[in-house]
Amino acid sequence: MTTxxxxxxxxxxxxxxxxxxxxxxxxxxxxxxxxESSIYNHYVNKQAIFDEIILFCQNRxxxxxxxxxLQETFKGNFDVYEHIPPQVLLTISKTMFNFYVSxxxxxxxxxxxxxxQYNNAHIAVIYKDTFIDQPIQFQTLLFQHLILTGSLHxxxxxxxxxxxxxxxxxxxxxxxxxxxxxxxxxxxxxHFIQKNSKI
Length: 199
Hints:
Elements: H1 3-18, H2 25-32, H3 36-39, H4 46-67, H5 71-74, H6 87-102, H7 104-116, H8 121-148, H9 157-174, H10 178-196
């Protein structure tokens, strides 16, 4: 890990516990093990570090979406789901849940956004977009497609998205590992599939 990467990680670690305003450049430098002045060789100020963290973590999440072949579905192409059993929904959901609670950067990123949403209107937008609006919008479109192709029973797709995602969001807020949440996640998703699947 380079010095710049260490600065990013240690800043994220501290922001995720103390919040942005309670962490100084001196605190970050101490955690990295460098002089305070050395921070400025890599970042112009604390805000620049914060902005870089947001960009880095958003890109990290996008890379995970690509590994799950979800990028095309985010663009509105749901054809990949047409001949896949709804049980795949369980696998994808558990994989994404695990990623957000076990990936060291994304876990701390979520914690940082949770704290900072009350202090920064821009961060509040990012938090809601990342953990509420985007998932519900994506799942609404996905369920609409699965209804049209005959995989799910006819229903209001947005209501299905809310029904599906709300317990997952609750578990994401409650647990810090897939192991702790796994049983409840399995119960919820299996129940959802049994209730709504036509396959």
